[in-house]
Amino acid sequence: MLRLAVSNVLMSKPIIQQRAMSSLLCSKALIDGKWVSASSGKTFEVKNPANNKVVGSVPNMNAKDAQLAIDAAKRAFYSDEWAGLTAKQRSQLLKNWYHLIEKNTQEIAEIMTAECGKPINESKGEVAYGNAFMEWFAEETRRIYGEIVPSPIQNREMIVMKQPLGVAALITPWNFPMAMITRKAGAALAAGCTVVIKPAEDTPLTALAVAKLAQDAGIPDGVVNVVTTKEAAPIGDLFCKSPDVHGISFTGSTEVGKILFRQSADGVKKISLELGGNAPFIVFDSADLNKAIDGAIASKFRNCGQTCVSANRFFVQEGIYDKFLEGLKQRVESLKIGQGDCADTQIGPLINTMQFNKVTGFVEDARSKKCNIITGGKPLKDLGELFYAPTIITDVSKDAKIYTEEVFGPIVTVIKFKTEEDALKIANETRRGLAGYFFSENVQQIFRVAKRLEVGMVGVNEGLISAAEAPFGGIKESGIGREGSHHGIDEYTEIKYVCLGNLKYY
Predict the structure, then answer these.
(1) Helix 204-216 to helix 87-103 angle, to the nearest 10 degrees?
(2) What are 361-413's pLDDT values in tens digits?
(3) Degrees (nearest 5) of the Cα angle 466, 166, 62?
(4) 3-state class (DSSP) for residue 92
């Protein structure tokens, strides 16, 4: 019997007030410091996935509009107002932006919750997390060091310097509508680049709110541009083929990432891709059971399971399997589901109908293949059209879609294993390699498994691993490059070698 804490959520008093969102709720795009409409005059509505109410409308721009943004970014890159700034001055502007985001945390979080449905406390957490990248890169701006290499010839000096790429196009997803922008734009601006941001069509309002604060922070016109659209493909194609765009950063599906990669090949363009994952979550017999369950809830159900690093495939060793499953079931059934603007909501809706149908299809396919649905496994239509019950499925057959494909939703598949070798074999038998998690109290096992998991990031006895200070990215088909950490700026710089010859020292 599914015991979801729905009634408490429905009775909670909404904490978002429309008046509180007014000052940062923008209805136009930002190009060259001006708030503009689409050249066609077209707009599209942004709706709250929890109740289908219209939150706002924004311009439905085309490639012509995007070209104007690229032109503005190019002019800004070469202007004295940007190219002429010192690292210290760029650092101060990013700090200004950071402080304004911090000051407006509540308002940004309310806009985010309204357009993507995530619980308000989770939205506040994302603002803090996303703003940590702005703070980090504001500090890293002054640490983009070059090198002096000892020359093999007596009358030469060999200098290596890092210079900004130029215009960078940033294509961001709906699941983290602020953090994916600050993680990219913070690094790009720190390096000295200018940017054109294309946010996801489901969540453009958060992007525009953050861009408005960049303007308020004193960042020069044209340095940060935002193009909103429901017609992403032509704009993505322009970004890839334009000789004035020198770098692309994309977070999204592996399928779209591959398209962008191919389209960028003719220009041999620098590209950073953070793509889909299929994260294993391994619980060994030696694990602390409570820590493992806490980690499972944190990793799997944040943003209703709609994260690229969400735990996707749970492998539990036979000695601890029954206890883990029992404890996980209790925790899942106690999750509070409802409207994101209620303070005690833990799980909100899926983002759109396509995502809802995908999740529903996974569960129905598993049901048809005789998998065991322990809890959940059904829509929650009483709450809204896009709500789906947190679900646990066991006895998963290898021919079930849910066994091999990434699930971007609140579904846990639990598979029993016998040995460490078994766990590593099934964990690594995928072309995705973004993140992986495992729980063990055996130190020797920790080092063995951490090295052998074929992923770019590993959480050991921890379900939440991302931080501004750490490199974020994957291997295999989960991406190219790294975001965050001091490595994040490298995606927006070129290395130039300067040889000074015929010097006279004596």
Answers:
(1) 120
(2) 999 999 999 999 999 999 999 999 999 999 999 999 889 999 989 999 999 99
(3) 85
(4) helix
pLDDT tens digits, one per residue of 98-130: 999 999 999 999 999 999 999 999 999 999 999
Q: What is the dihedral of CA 177, 165, 236, 61, to 10 degrees?
A: 70
* pLDDT for the residue 4: 40
Helix (H, G, I), strand (E, B) or coil at 177: coil
Instruction: Assess contact for 415 and 289: CB atoms under 8 A.
Output: no
Distance of CA 202 to CAs 37, 57, 125, 174, 304, Å?
18, 11, 20, 6, 16
Q: Is the pLDDT of residue 11 over 70?
A: no
Residue with tokens 């994957």: 474
Q: Which residue among 308, 333, 371, 477 is the active-site one?
A: 308
Please list, in sequence order, all residues whose beta carbon lies within 8 angstroms of the beta carbon of residue 330, skipping any fewer than 6 positions away: none
Can you name the residues that pair with 161 across neighbouring β-strands?
496
Q: Which of 107, 274, 333, 406 is catalytic?
A: 274
pLDDT at residue 1 above 60?
Answer: no
274 is catalytic: yes
Mean pLDDT across 42-59: 96
* Residues 205-230: tens digit of each pLDDT: 999 999 999 999 999 999 999 999 99
Predicted TM-score (pTM) above 0.90: yes
**Is residue 270 within 8 Å of 166, Cβ to Cβ?**
no
Query: How far from chain centre, in Å, is Cα 421?
Result: 31
Q: Measuring CA to CA, how many Å separate 355 from each of 248, 274, 359?
A: 26, 20, 6
* Nearest-angstrom CA–CA distance, 387 and 339: 10
The number of beta carbons lying within 10 Å of the beta carbon of residue 275 is 26
Q: Residue 356: which of 84, 109, 96, 50 has the closest Cα?
A: 50
Task: Determine how many CB atoms are found less than 10 A away from the CB of residue 297.
Answer: 20
Q: Sign of the C-alpha dihedral, residues 282, 283, 285, 287?
A: positive
Structural tokens at position 6: 């729905």
Q: φ and ψ at 148, to 5 degrees? A: -115, 115
Please spell the DSSP secondary structure of 405-423, one letter per residue: S---SSEEEEEEESSHHHH
Judged by DSSP in three states, 317 sits in strand
Query: Does the annotation count 81 as an active-site position?
Result: no
In whole angstroms, what is the distance from residue 314 CA to residue 402 CA? 12
Mean pLDDT for 74-100 is 97
Give the DSSP letter string of 452-503.
HS-SSEEEES-S----TTS-B--EETTEES-BSTGGGGGGGEEEEEEEE-S-
Return the ∠ at Cα 21 (arms to 16 and 22), rounded to 5°.
145
**Please, what's the b/e burial string for 431-446 (b: 16 or more CB within 10 A of its CB; e: otherwise)?**
ebbbbbbbbbeeeebb
Q: From the CB of residue 125, how many other CB atoms can be counted at a distance below 10 Å?
A: 16
d(C-alpha 182, C-alpha 177), whole Å = 9
**Gap between the Cα atoms of 350 and 225, Å rounded:** 29
